[in-house]
Amino acid sequence: MLQVERVGIAAYLRGEEGCGYLSGPLSAPLHVTKAVELENLANRYHSIDPVNHPRTGRDYFKINSLKFERTLAESQNLGCPIKVFFHSHMNCGAYFSQEDAAAMTLDGTASPTYPLCYLVTAIDAGQVSKHALFRWDEATRAFVESPFTVVEPLG
User: Fold this and answer.
1) Using CA atoms in the order 148, 69, 18, 81, what is the torsion angle rounded to 10 degrees?
2) For 106-152, how does the pLDDT look when each residue is reduced to its tens digit (9 = 90+)?
3) 2-146 has CATH 3.40.50.880 classification
4) Cβ-Cβ contacts under 8 Å for 31 (sequence gap 6 or more)
5) Rounded CA separation 142/101 (Å)
6) pLDDT 10s digits, 8-65
7) Under a CB-based contact definition with an 8 Å cutoff, are residues 19 and 82 in contact?
8) Residue-range domain boundaries for the chain
9) Backbone dihedral angles phi then psi of residue 122, each to the nearest 5 degrees
10) What is the rounded CA–CA span in Å between residue 28 and residue 60?
11) Residue among 155, 151, 134, 133 nearest 31 (CA)
12) How far apart are CA 101 and CA 31, in angstroms?
């Protein structure tokens, strides 16, 4: 969790949301052992084409989807699959926004693109204030908050 918090705070100081993923052994489905930061491309896209990309990294994250999909497949093949996608929110709490849900479900028209859980970390005034984990609930066709426990800090 320390790495997730470091990513969120560093991104906050850059004026953007941080993002990445957590992976862990296939033999322990509820455990993660590795945190990897991904580049938030939102500011780059906005600076190149603000008309078609009006949002900045302050309230949005954009990743290289093709690279992430390759990494997702490779991690599965190596027996250490990606289990959780994480991102931070700046000064607005730890919740799964409508934008987050739309991005993960093709604007609400399908089940999530990736079979992952989603960890949102609130960075308020430059400090971690809360973590919230969300999973897809097929019965309600919505992301619901789920409890989690940090067993061993990622460092």
Assistant:
1) 30
2) 766 778 888 899 999 999 999 999 999 999 999 998 899 999 988 76
3) no
4) 24, 25, 151
5) 8
6) 999 999 999 999 999 999 999 999 999 999 999 999 999 999 999 999 999 889 999 9
7) no
8) 2-146
9) -85, 125
10) 31
11) 151
12) 24
